[in-house]
């Protein structure tokens, strides 16, 4: 069985709960780093027909496909979603908007061209919105599409985010099943640069099969590789999402989410080396068994510090962190490399 | 070719071996996991292809060989997957990672992929089998069937003091201290009887050199790093002691008995034992023909151990009773062989001169039925069991099935059962099942005067009724053992009617035409052949088997595995085997099983007792 | 009066105690045998009357008390006999040796002789019971019945690392290092898994402070005296480590699980376990009502352990099913409680709204049958067993007998069994035996759509046929647990029809007239009473039991044994008990069993949760 | 059940093999100490109707009762026994005769008065016989009987041997079931002294129930007690004889015969203290499981040395003895005292 088939089999066993197409899959307010300061952000996850890659199988860790709509939304419904989402931002004075779908915002099959223009146009029209970030797979980052977006947005900043995950094609293929190559990303980055659009790369800490150490070093190396091709780097810590292949193996004791100490070390090493880059991480589900975690005592503190660093880009907030479990983590870094195929579990 | 590993001793699937580096390493062995990263260590890992490029990997190989020459087992670069990974991914990666190196090498064993030669195999994802007895069993048997018997099997990230003996029992040669170390850093205190959180303990139940100098309170108050180090040292001490104990048990041949107790620590270990026992092929092929120690039958799993099941199966498949029409079923005795016990002396005295018309078969748990002629033969004379008077339903079911099989195959005109309680229950079950009549001669107590008298009178009454065949206890015994050991037909050949049995019980010797053919070895109740006996079997057209075919040379003392061309697959460690080649004929004791003789490139196959130049004329006489 | 020994913790018959000298001694304890000769030691032997005159003996007593006052357990002068000595000799000597002394004393326990008060009893001739499970069992039970529960029992010259845990499990408080020492001087190396002649070993399987610094070769080459000393030190280390381990296991409440594995080392130890299990009275009376750990059922003896047998007996003796005429028999699940498992969720979903007409009973090994209402109650929610799919004949026999008993006592108009394999075999056995019809609704796989559909349709078909009583899951559950715990009738009283159950499963609370009566403790599946619940039970004319009667005082926090006047003999450690006296009424958790409460002079009898001044008016409302 | 009843029950289960009453139960030649020299000895065990005490139960360690005749021998048969026994002495030039029955030679119920006189007369008549020793229970050592014996023997030396076993009445009663008291022995010794008859006391090392140390010390004390009442002391090392109560307990692991090291120590200590006494010991069955034994390596050597000492009374022959098992024996001395009723087995 291929990795894609394995992922697809699991997908097919999941039920998608029916819900109104008038509302986005999710929307929330948060704060982010922007130009050396903390800025408000409104994140919107549009409910679309879903990621084309995910529908055919998709990535081993991705559970967002289940956020897609059971019946593809009409263009009107998509715009209604934006409207409903913007209510959440009513009280904000000045903010960025991050747009996700369960796939690619720039994919016409998910968001029709006209709808995309309308959505971006509405955001451009809102004075409080100073920047829009949209996520997409690299194949949709073309001259034509970018230009159309820039047209719609006017002088509102525009950034494209791509889930690169890693610069290693080996890992992206055999562990993540992402379906594109590093050169696809760098090509997209070139197109973006040529159009004056900034790039954000999402990386994945600890995909399947990698040891804690391999995972850590892979991100460090990826940031070196990607430094010229992005302005912002956001490191996702792999968590165990429902209905994913990662979950399948995790339930069988064959996967452990990354340690929070690993992201701390990554941030310290990479930021020092690349002070020009904005390097952030938002540990989702930190401290839980399914999320990145240290021990019960320190997971919350360390996770808070990572958040704070992400907003401030100030490495000092990471300096004071310590816990008894850090010795264990160091041992795991040493030994998890030498288990020949089974993770070291807690 | 496995030039770097040799198996020296076996106890079931477990074995003691040697990794042939300049300082040989005794197996079962515990690898200090971190030492795998030392390119000059005895085991050196060339790295993971998840983060190495092909060039970097080759460079690693080169570096290791440069540092230590062929004095390290080089673990080829690998890209590890967990066990439940899809086959395609495994295949893709396997193709990509097609590395080789000179000298001794270790390889990942990946399910579903072709096996290439190596000195050591690492079970991929072994740690994930924790708790999953069925999958682990399947993986072990699969690997053992695919790799050469004289290669070492390494199971990483799984071993603890509690499961070490079981892993070794199942045939694993190498483990590591990953779990022992991680537990130490997790404040977990490991013992052979389970693990404890340091916080939930009140005392340290250990006198090892890590624990002896400190109290639990002192340990708790230490800085984490120091505490972790001491706990790790303790955990590794326990692991090491347990592995040494397992080695001692292999040498003594009684690892099974230990594992039958030890497996109670975790349900999945007990499950492993039970599941492996259902794999009679794998288990029996590794079980020696005989051991000099007692077989302790202290638990329900004792009934399914391969030596016990084999005995029952051979009674069914290989044994033919003497031509005696009257069967007397008797209960077993604690003292072995039964015939020297108090109760059996009385039975025998009661049978008196009519004994020659009677065939005696003993009913016993866990062996089932033991014909008198085989009472000396391992394990009939070697088991010790828990005596409480109560037989559980499984024992009754098992022994009934043995008796039922026996009586279905072997017919008697009269069946007398001089038994009580569970023995009687069993006879009644079988009597009802097969619709055959059984005469019961005991009333309340098998050794009471009344019962013994009844036995005596019943037998003489029957004998008086007609003409009955007589048995010849000494030749019957030798013939039964020959059949048991060499298969049906061997008895006829080695102990024909014209043969003579010399020397008193139990040191019988068989002579034909004044030539000694065979000797009974009382300690195991098995037969040793003389060179004349060997020629007799070898030259017969009616018998084939237990033969090791060798190349055209004349071995001396020991026959090494590389000299073996072919060997009977039925041969077990400890078997008496014929050795035949164009230049030699001989006999000796098998030191490995038949399959291993053929597939091994190292080790002693047969310990020869007699070896002669093949002489075609002589072979014909 | 046993002023010098107190039992602090219990695990079955095993206990942790304290000998109350100025430096208290923790039991189970190992006496260094030679120290018995030290008149100032914690245990001082006043000598043997085989060689002392009465005057010399008295002088010895005087000397010991002079040296150490009351800070030594003085073992009264004794004249020892071996166990098989004739009664008259024992009697004559016993009369002759009628010594007394002040302060803490130890006495020989001699079979057949009257027992006089002491703080410590020494089992006479204990060493001779080695290998004789039946006699040893009888002696232990005899002694325990005759001596006060809070006195220490010392078994001399018997303990080895291999049997220590068993001795402690059976209720022995003190052992010595005689055998460990003698073995050392005999060149015998002891381990918990058996003994080895030093000459037959190849390595030292131990990392204790005696073994760690030397190799076996070095040990062998030492002068005898040095070697004997090191071996003795090792043997004593092993003994000590094993006794500490046993103490840790008592504290954790899982000594039984350890002993079930450890007893495989010597057949007589396995025999001891089996024989003791036949003494249900002795074993059950010491078994706690509930434990927080898992009950590991990994061997056939797990079926006879007292907690398991008690559960089955209470289902038979104390449990009354709700008035529901349709029974659905279901297989157990690995996940506990069953109802949160995958398979049971499906069964429940299939029953749907008809579930209220149906009584669900789960078939399982080793517990037998578990009514749904008791699925939380220890050990129904706490056992973990070996899963191989195979049920042996004894399991089938035992579970069948439980089901048969259940269906003989409790009648249903319709019985549906949604089961496969061994479960079905059991249902068929019982159906045949009792001549009752069982409808089978599963076809091949209990969770297949087809099977579940069949279950659903079968039940709705029956329900459609007539009028059926409905169950009230929450009150049925609380009532069943109350009966299970307090005996038949308690459920009616504590959970009458007018009561209300609040809070979601499994944290139910019973209210009557807005007063809280009882709370379910989900961890053990047992009930805790409020003071109102306590008054309700205590005031009822229809219920008696689980009551501890105290003198005319008002205890606080803990009720000590000397304050107990009487106690229900059915009370077990961990039971919820009513405490009644002329001045107080209360409720708490029993810390010892009822007999012990009455017979002990030291120790906490009840850990009180609520205690009030007895108020006759209040008691009436 | 009383000790005597217990012994008797065992007695009643034994079969006595029928044999000719013309031959003694046993007869053998050996050498003994006599007046500082080694002398030849002819030992005769007469087959009689048996020990009266033994028939009623008797001593816990005594298996000699089974040497008694099934049908009581006639006086003629008894004299025939002597005749047949003397053939064994044919080649001896000068020797002592030791006479045992399975009971008391001086008991008229075993040996009628006339027969006794005839037997002693015949021995007196044999020039080569310089001394006669007869064994008896003390109740038969009366003035009358002794005088009759002296009369019959003329100038041949006469010695009476009594199985005293121990000077402790407690042990003799509760462990051995001997049926007489120490004062019975000393009274007999007084009678003997008054008649100019020398006395030999047989002692028993390690009766039932005693620890190795207690047994050893009991013999040492007994020799002190008996020194005035005997000229020769012979220490029997208890061995496990067929059909005895000792055997009954030994089979059940409740008895261990004495160590040979114990007799070595006894001889060394007592001979030094009582140089005037002849103290001997003949370890019967030494080295076997049923007999006194050390380890397999040294039992024979130590037993030989004890024999040699017994003949020579020269303590130097015991000095050089040593073996690895001596350390074990020392430990046993320490611990066997503290087992509270079970022996320390090998």
Give the SSE layout:
The complex is a heterotetramer, with two copies of chain A (346 residues) and two copies of chain B (621 residues).
Chain A: H1 3-13, E1 26-34, E2 37-45, H2 52-55, H3 75-87, E3 95-100, H4 113-125, E4 129-135, H5 143-153, E5 157-165, H6 169-176, H7 182-194, E6 198-205, H8 212-226, E7 232-237, H9 245-251, H10 260-273, E8 278-281, H11 299-312, H12 316-319, H13 325-335
Parallel strand pairs in A: 2-3, 3-4, 4-5, 5-6, 6-7, 7-8
Antiparallel strand pairs in A: 1-2
Helix pairs in contact in A: 3-4, 4-5, 8-10, 10-11
Chain B: E1 5-11, E2 14-19, E3 25-27, E4 29-31, E5 43-45, H1 54-68, E6 73-75, H2 87-96, E7 105-109, E8 120-123, H3 133-146, E9 152-154, H4 164-169, E10 174-176, H5 178-185, E11 188-191, E12 194-197, H6 216-221, H7 224-252, H8 255-262, H9 267-278, H10 280-286, E13 295-297, H11 306-318, E14 326-331, H12 342-351, E15 358-364, E16 368-371, E17 383-385, H13 393-409, E18 414-417, H14 421-434, E19 439-440, H15 449-465, H16 473-486, H17 490-494, E20 500-502, E21 509-512, E22 515-521, E23 526-529, H18 531-539, E24 547-550, E25 558-560, E26 564-567, E27 576-580, E28 584-590, H19 594-599, E29 604-613, H20 616-620
Parallel strand pairs in B: 4-10, 5-6, 6-7, 7-8, 8-9, 13-17, 14-15, 14-18, 18-19, 24-27
Antiparallel strand pairs in B: 1-2, 2-3, 11-12, 15-16, 20-21, 21-22, 22-23, 24-26, 25-29, 27-28, 28-29
């Amino acid at each position: 069985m291929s990795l894609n088939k394995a992922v697809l089999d699991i997908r097919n066993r999941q039920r998608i709960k029916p819900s109104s197409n008038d509302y986005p899959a999710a929307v929330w307010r948060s704060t982010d780093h922007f130009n050396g300061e903390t800025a408000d952000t409104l994140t919107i996850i549009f409910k679309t027909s879903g990621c084309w890659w995910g529908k055919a199988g998709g990535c081993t860790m991705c559970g967002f496909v289940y956020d897609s709509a059971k019946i593809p939304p009409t263009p009107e419904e998509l715009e209604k979603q934006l409207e409903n989402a913007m209510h959440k931002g009513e009280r904000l004075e000045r903010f960025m908007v991050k747009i996700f779908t369960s796939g690619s915002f720039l994919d016409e099959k998910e968001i029709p061209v006209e709808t995309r223009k309308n959505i971006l146009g509405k955001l451009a029209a809102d004075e409080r919105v100073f920047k829009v970030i949209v996520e997409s797979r690299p194949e949709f980052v073309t001259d034509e599409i970018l230009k159309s977006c820039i047209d719609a947005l006017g002088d509102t900043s525009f950034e494209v985010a791509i889930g690169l995950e890693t610069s290693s094609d080996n890992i992206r293929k055999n562990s993540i099943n992402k379906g594109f190559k590093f050169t696809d990303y760098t090509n997209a980055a070139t197109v973006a640069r040529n159009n004056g659009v900034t790039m954000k790369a999402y990386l994945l800490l600890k995909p399947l099969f990698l040891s804690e150490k391999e995972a850590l070093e892979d991100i460090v190396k990826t940031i070196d590789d990607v430094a010229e091709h992005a302005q912002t780097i956001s490191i996702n810590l792999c968590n165990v999402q429902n209905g994913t292949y990662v979950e399948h193996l995790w339930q069988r004791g064959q996967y452990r989410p990354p340690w929070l100490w690993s992201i701390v070390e990554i941030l310290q090493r990479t930021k020092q080396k690349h002070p020009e880059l904005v390097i952030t991480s938002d540990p989702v589900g930190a401290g839980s068994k399914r999320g990145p975690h240290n021990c019960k005592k320190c997971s919350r503190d360390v996770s808070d510090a990572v958040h704070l660093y992400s907003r401030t880009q100030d490495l000092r907030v990471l300096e004071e962190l310590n816990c008894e479990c850090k010795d264990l983590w160091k041992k795991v870094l040493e030994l998890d490399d030498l288990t020949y195929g089974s993770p070291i579990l807690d | 070719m496995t030039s770097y590993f040799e198996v020296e001793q076996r106890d079931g699937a477990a074995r003691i071996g040697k990794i042939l580096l300049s300082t040989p390493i005794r197996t079962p062995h515990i690898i200090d996991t971190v030492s795998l990263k030392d390119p000059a260590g005895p085991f050196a890992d060339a790295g993971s292809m998840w983060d190495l490029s092909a060039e970097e990997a080759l460079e690693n190989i080169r570096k290791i060989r440069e540092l230590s020459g062929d004095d390290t087992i080089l673990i080829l670069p690998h890209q590890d997957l967990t066990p439940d990974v899809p086959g395609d991914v495994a295949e893709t990666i396997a193709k990509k990672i097609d590395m080789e190196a000179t000298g001794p090498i270790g390889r990942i064993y990946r399910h579903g992929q072709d096996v290439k030669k190596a000195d050591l195999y690492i079970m991929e994802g072994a740690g994930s089998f924790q708790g999953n007895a069925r999958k682990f069993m399947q993986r072990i048997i699969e690997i053992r069937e695919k790799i050469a018997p004289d290669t070492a099997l390494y199971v990483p990230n799984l071993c603890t003091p509690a499961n070490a003996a079981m892993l070794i029992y199942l045939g694993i040669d190498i483990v590591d201290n990953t779990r022992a170390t991680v537990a130490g850093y997790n404040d977990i205190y490991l013992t052979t009887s389970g693990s404890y959180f340091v916080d939930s303990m009140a005392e340290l139940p250990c006198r090892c050199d890590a624990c002896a100098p400190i109290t639990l309170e002192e340990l708790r108050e230490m800085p984490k790093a120091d505490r972790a180090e001491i706990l790790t040292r303790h955990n590794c001490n326990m692991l090491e002691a347990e592995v040494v104990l397992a080695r001692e048990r292999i040498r003594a041949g009684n690892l099974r008995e230990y594992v039958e107790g030890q497996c109670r620590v975790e349900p999945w270990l007990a499950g492993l034992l039970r599941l492996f026992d259902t794999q009679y092929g794998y288990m029996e092929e590794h079980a020696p023909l005989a051991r000099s120690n007692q077989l302790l039958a202290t638990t329900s799993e004792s009934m399914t151990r391969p030596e016990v099941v084999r005995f029952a199966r051979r009674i069914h498949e290989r044994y033919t009773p003497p031509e005696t029409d009257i069967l007397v079923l008797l209960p077993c005795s604690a003292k072995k062989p039964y015939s020297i016990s108090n109760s059996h002396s009385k039975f025998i005295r009661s049978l008196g001169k009519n004994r020659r018309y009677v065939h005696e078969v003993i009913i016993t748990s866990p062996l089932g039925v033991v014909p008198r002629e085989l009472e000396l033969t391992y394990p009939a004379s070697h088991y010790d069991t828990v005596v409480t008077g109560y037989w559980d339903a499984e024992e009754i079911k098992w022994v009934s099935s043995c008796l039922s099989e026996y009586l279905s195959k072997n017919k008697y005109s009269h069946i007398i059962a001089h038994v009580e309680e569970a023995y009687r229950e069993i006879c009644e079950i079988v009597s009802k099942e097969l619709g055959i009549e059984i005469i019961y001669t005991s009333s309340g107590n098998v050794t009471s005067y009344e019962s013994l008298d009844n036995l005596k009178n019943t037998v003489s009454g029957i004998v008086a009724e007609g003409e009955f065949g007589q048995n010849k206890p000494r030749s019957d015994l030798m013939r039964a053992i020959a059949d048991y050991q060499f298969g049906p037909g061997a008895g006829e050949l080695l102990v024909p009617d014209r043969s003579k049995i010399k020397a008193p019980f139990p040191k019988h010797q068989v002579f034909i035409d004044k030539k000694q053919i065979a000797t009974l070895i009382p300690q195991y109740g098995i037969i040793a052949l003389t060179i004349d006996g060997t020629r007799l079997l070898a030259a017969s057209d009616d018998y084939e088997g237990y033969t090791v075919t060798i190349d055209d040379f004349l071995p001396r003392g020991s026959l090494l595995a590389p000299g073996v061309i072919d060997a009977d697959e039925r041969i077990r460690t400890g078997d008496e085997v014929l050795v035949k080649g164009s230049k030699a004929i001989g006999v000796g004791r098998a030191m490995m099983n038949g399959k291993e003789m053929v597939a091994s490139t190292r080790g002693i196959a047969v310990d020869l007792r007699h070896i002669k130049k093949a002489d075609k004329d002589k072979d014909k006489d």
